[in-house]
Amino acid sequence: MTRLSVNLNKVALLRNQRTIGIPSVVHAARLVLEAGAEGITVHPRPDERHVRATDVDELAAFLQQWPGIEYNIEGNPLHNLVPIIQRVRPHQCTYVPDAPGATTSDHGWDLARDGERLRPLIEAAHAVGSRVSLFMDPDPAAMAAARALGADRVELYTEPYARAWGTADFASTLERYRAAGAAARAAGLGLNAGHDLNRDNLAPFLRAVEGVDEVSIGHALIADALEFGLATTIGLYLAEIRRAGRPAD
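RESULT FIELD:
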């Protein structure tokens, strides 16, 4: 079954509005793991506007108590992410081409332009035992190139899918993701997905795009937790993942 990795950036963003240390990112990690999540994702940015370097290290120490739980660190390897990877040695690092001041990730890698710069950075992560996933647009033609660079997985950037939800473009958009996922698997890549996935659109995505190993969800999940609480919300998302394995309603 597809694994659910919870992105805790929004917890850190709220914490940073005050100086008293709440909500605790580590405590939030404990709550979501106790509720059944199978991974923790963080995306430290150079300005530390949400997750900080101290959070990355504290989560790494905390997760030593949780064998089998995956730690995924996202970020732009061209902006000082690699020293963090080398220090923490996460199970997975997801390389994302976001600019330092970007509000959020908003596109995948252009491998024709950036591929050769990424190759040694992928090798650096492999040297410390970390799997590398490249954040990619749903372009089937790019998947073999990602594998040729040494990537282990790709993470399909799913905001265009979420924006197409309920519109006339939905079917054609979903087909692009289905084709990209098939191309990734044919190239020998593992397959992740993330960005603006939520309780409404998650199961249809997983039903159409076969073989997704992991989804990373933060913004919508934390928003739902304001209404339902973290533990209940994790259960709701896990139920959607299970629903993806059953025939459509």
